Structure formats: structure tokens, C-alpha cells
Amino acid sequence: MRASRGEKHISGAERLLEYSLLEDATSVMLKRALNHVRGKAEKICFKLQPVPSRQVSKRNLLNLTTFEVADWPQGRALAAQLIGNLGVKSSIVQEAMAQLAGGPSPAGEAMRGAMLVSTETGQRLEPDKTRGVRVSRMDLDKDAGQRVEALLTDMGLNNPRVIEAWTLASKVALYPQVVAALCWSDDPDYITGYVASAQNGNQRVIRLKEAGSEIGGRIFFVRPGGDLNDLISHLQYEPVLFDAPSH
Ligand code: AMP
């Protein structure tokens, strides 16, 4: 689902579901688009595509940890450090974060998708700088729902927003070309974000932006050497269902 008002991105969501669940899921998405804190959607597009079940792979979610910080500047400094721990040069992290904070689209607004940033040159790699790259075709495995919800309930985090962000982060971290993903929301009332990587899991940072700000987004830090088109195609189209973390 993709909802917008003029050029402004309001909301998006993607699911990977059995046919029997389509009606309920689309109705939840429609409600979300119609009652969004970023504004009332004028245009709402649904795209439904069949995915043969034999193409769907099953993986485990990343481990989930949460870091407390006093305020968003401290959160950003911590996020930069977490990405730096994965070997990305500090100047590249700082520049990419500044672009995200300033509104990564050419109009200085949030994009629908993610920025791709080279860990070698710091350059933006996504072909469409207005749209970004939108990760799709991921969800919880239907047999995993209860296990995952029980885990999240123990952490006091059982809500759809956390589940969606967690599955997205876990899919992105599957690709060895991605060193790390950084995210903070474009919802003005949601200030928690995360750094995710195959190496260190999904590291939530409790405050990553100022309350009230509508500028958010995702950065995928991409190491050189791989085939970029192939990575983008996997991010967009490879269907993956997730179970709870393996340990
Ligand atoms: P959200 O976490 O839904 O508040 O989204 C925050 C930002 O992350 C959005 O403004 C987009 O730039 C980006 N984003 C959201 N969903 C996706 C997705 N499926 N794939 C890539 N980027 C996304």
C-alpha cells in the first residue's frame, strides 16, 4: 500500500500473506492510510501480486536489543558509533546521516524508500532519489506469530510497528552487500529508530529524532564490489517469511 497527498509521501506498507488473509490486511492498511499523523491521504494505491509459495524462503529474525539514551542527539551519536563499529568510515556515516536529517529527497522531504550509500565513496547509489528503494515481500511466517508476539510482549514491545520494522531490517540484513541499515521514522510522534546488521542484529535506539519532526527515512550502507541491480532486485522482490530469532 502506498498513500500520498500531492507529492508528499504519507504512508506505505507491505505484506506477504496467504490469500485468505488479504481482505483483513488490506482493510487495516486502508485505515492506516486514512488516519495518518502525516496527513490525510488523497491517493491510496494497492498493488497485489501473486508469489508462488515455492519461491518463498524462511529465515530467522535478527536478535533485537534496545539502547536507552537521554535525548536524540545522544541517540544519533550512538547510532553513528554502532555503524562505525561495523567498519564504515565516520565521515561517510556523518554525511549520510546529515542528508537523512535534512530530508533525503531532492525537495528536502522524506522519501518513500531507502537511501543506498556506498561505504567506499559515501555516494548515493539509489537510481531514483525521489523514491528511494522500497523493500517489499517480507512478513512473519504465520506459524511464528505467537512465538514472536510472546517475545515482544516480554520486552513490552508487542505492536505492529515494531514487527514491521523488525521484519524489514531482518530482510535487508540478509544481503552481504549491506553492511548496516539505519532508520528513524517519518511519523512525527515516533522517535525510536535502529541500526541493523547481520553482525550485531537489530539495535533499537530509543530516541533518534526530535518529536514533531516529519523527516525520517532509511539508509542502507552498501559495500563496494557487488552487483547493485541484483541487490535492489532482491530487496524489492525476494519473498521471505521470518520466524523468531534463532538464539
Ligand atoms: P516508517 O518506519 O514506516 O516510519 O518509515 C520511515 C522511512 O523509512 C520512510 O519515510 C521511508 O523513507 C523509509 N521506508 C519505509 N518503509 C520502507 C520500505 N519498505 N523500504 C524502504 N524504505 C522504507
Task: Provide an overview of this structure.
There is one protein chain. With 247 residues, this protein is α/β, with parallel strands linked by helices. The protein is 29% helix and 22% strand. The protein has helices at 22-34, 72-84, 90-101, 145-155, 160-172, 228-237; strands at residues 2-5, 8-12, 43-45, 57-60, 64-67, 115-118, 138-140, 178-184, 193-197, 201-205, 217-222, 240-243. It has a six-stranded mixed beta sheet, sandwiched between helices. The chain has a three-stranded antiparallel beta sheet with strand order 2-1-3. A hairpin with a 2-residue loop joins strand 1 (2-5) and strand 2 (8-12). Helix 2 crosses helix 3. The longest helix is centred in the N-terminal third of the chain and has 13 residues, at 22-34. It is globular, with a radius of gyration of 17 Å. The two termini are 33 Å apart. The structure holds adenosine monophosphate.
Mean pLDDT across every amino acid position:
96
Order of helices and strands: EEHEEEHHEEHHEEEEHE
Helix fraction by DSSP (H/I, runs of at least 4): 25-40%
Described by strand count, sense and barrel closure, the largest sheet is: 6 strands, mixed
- Output the number of helix runs: 6
Low-confidence stretches: none
Structural class: alpha/beta
Strand order of the largest sheet: 5-10-9-8-11-6
Beta-strand share of residues: 15-25%
Radius of gyration: 17 Å
Number of strands: 12
* Rough outline: globular
